[in-house]
Amino acid sequence: MSITREGRMCSFCGTSGGPGTDVQLIGGLGAQVCGTCVDDFHALLHDPVQHAAAKGAFPWDRMSDAEVLANLSMIMASAEQNTAFAHEWVDLLRERNISWAEIGRALGVSRQAVWERFARKGSDKSATA
Predict the structure, then answer these.
(1) Tens of pLDDT along 56-66?
(2) What are the phi and psi torsion angles at 71 (to 5°)?
(3) What pTM did the predictor assign?
């Protein structure tokens, strides 16, 4: 199994990216960031005026209710992307013969709880391992 960036989006601006697009995504552990956001954050961090203005201010504090609502679908898409990424990691661990009990311990839950959340019904023949 190979974990790819195909079909992913930038977790910060929502731009679709990855192979087959002009948007290169970098990052890992679920969060992906596009080059434009990296450049924007780099500029912000290295400009004392921008950095001071951004410090402590949250973007949603400056948004209208309509803007917050408009961003909700992107936030849900990012959350779903991270959930899918977690499933890919669990699939990778199962392919490496890591037991459900070990995965559960890593997540701080029981073997049964992790199996119920991550087992691909019908595709994992070793559900009890």
Answers:
(1) 778 888 889 99
(2) -85, -15
(3) 0.64
